[in-house]
Amino acid sequence: MTDGKILVHNHKGGTGKTMVSVHLAHHLARSAGPGGKPICVWDADTQGNAMSWISEHQWDGRESFRYTEDGQAPIVATIDPEVALGQDRLVVDTPPTGTFIEEFLSVARLTEEDVLLCPVDGRNAVSGALKVAEEVAPTGCRMIMVHNRADPKKSHARTEIEALEEIAGHEDIGAELFRLAIPSNPDYMRRAEEQGIPVWDLSYASRTHTCKALRTFCSWVGNGAPPDDNPPAGGLGGNQKPISKSLNQRLWN
Fold it and tell me: Are the CB atoms for 64 and 76 separated by under 8 Å?
């Protein structure tokens, strides 16, 4: 990722926007290295969940703070829009409201250099993704949907994926779909949030399908989300595929 804005947004709550925002920020910071530009996370949701996660649950209500760790670029976490919009590299954890894009566009621009990531979890979130796609289409901003917290055992999982594929295939909308679902693993994700770390820092979670898929998604976005690498072909964790072939078939077939 070069300089620019990444908004993580869906009109529906509970789709894992904070999870995606925090993990993406950590990935970008580590990829940039200790001499890299800071990664700013704007927690635009009044719940302040991203601020709590990044601060290792030590957030004391300050509008902004700087998180540093050896071997990576700093992360600037803020609830102040002026601080956020003054940063070169910005990840926005948005509130689940239907007015946020309109409000954001009143103070900042979205261009072809920016990206909107839309996590989708549930049927209502599919409708929310469609509304978001329609809102951002005039800006030229690239929109990418990801089926987040997917459970292939649920009967409606395939229906949701088919709906997202239909949205992505509509030329007038211009939305894309990351063709690798991020499986649900609430236990490990809850532990990671409680410890204030990304899930891949839990040693016993690093080889789970959830961790591999999430790391693959963050890496793909960080590399500019190249269409030719969607679905990803590279390997993680010593395997040649980010998730097993059998799981991929269950998620996508």
Answer: yes
Going by DSSP bridges, is the β-strand pair 175-183/142-150 parallel, antiparallel, or unpaired? Answer: parallel
Structural contact between residues 53 and 22, judged by C-beta atoms closer than 8 angstroms? yes
Beta bridge partners of 4: 89
* pLDDT at residue 14 in the model: 92
**What global pTM score does this model have?**
0.91
**8 A C-beta contact, residue 59 and residue 48:** yes
Q: Per-residue pLDDT for 251 more than 70?
A: no
Residue 12 CB-density burial (10 A; 0-12 exposed, 13-18 middle, 19+ buried): buried
**What is the distance between the alpha carbons of residues 160 and 187, in angstroms, rounded to a whole number?**
23
Residues 6+ apart with CB under 8 A from 63: 78, 79, 80, 83
Those residues whose C-beta lies under 8 Å from the C-beta of residue 148, and which sit 6 or more positions away, are: 15, 16, 19, 20, 119, 120, 121, 181, 182
Q: Residues, the chain, total?
A: 253
- Taking every pair of C-alpha atoms in the chain, what is the biggest distance, in angstroms? 47
Question: Which CATH superfamily, name and number, covers 4-252?
Answer: P-loop containing nucleotide triphosphate hydrolases (3.40.50.300)
Instruction: Give me the pLDDT at residue 151, please.
Output: 82
Average per-residue pLDDT for the chain: 89
User: What is the residue extent of each domain of the chain?
Assistant: 4-252
Going by their DSSP bridges, the two strands 39-43 and 64-67 should be labelled as unpaired
**CA separation for the pair 253, 94 (Å, rounded):** 31
